[in-house]
Amino acid sequence: METETAASQAIARLYAEYAPALVRHLERLTRSREIAEDLAQETFIKALRSWGQLASGENVRAWLFRIATNTAYDEFRRRRRRATTPLTDIHADTLAAEQTVST
Questions:
Q1: How many CB atoms lie within 10 A of CB 5?
Q2: pLDDT tens sequence across 6-58
Q3: Three-class DSSP category at 36
Q4: Which H or E element spans position 61?
Q5: Which of 37, 42, 35 is closest to 79 using CA atoms?
Q6: Hey, which of 43, 58, 83, 100 would disulfide with 68, CB 3.0 to 4.6 Å?
Q7: How far apart are CA 33 and CA 12, in angstroms?
Q8: Whole-model pTM?
Q9: Residues 68, 62: contact at Cβ < 8 Å?
């Protein structure tokens, strides 16, 4: 329990120090301040979860920025999978014609 508290406090300090720069970095990647802020929050959650994997002496700033960049890439992949094309009148006419032919 003490290590969780220590990790939480360390992440809180890191958040205060690095959040503004991370949000700017993520905003450049996503071109959206709102998405960047959400991804920054997600970055710090991931950092807290994997705090024990951080090697002593490792560059914490680089580690956080790598997590942030990977988080943004994950978001891009999620959005690409969910991308849909709205049906237009042309699509609706084609579907209606196909249904008429098949009946």
A1: 9
A2: 777 877 888 899 999 999 999 999 999 999 999 999 999 998 888 888 878 88
A3: helix
A4: helix 60-82
A5: 35
A6: 43
A7: 21
A8: 0.68
A9: no
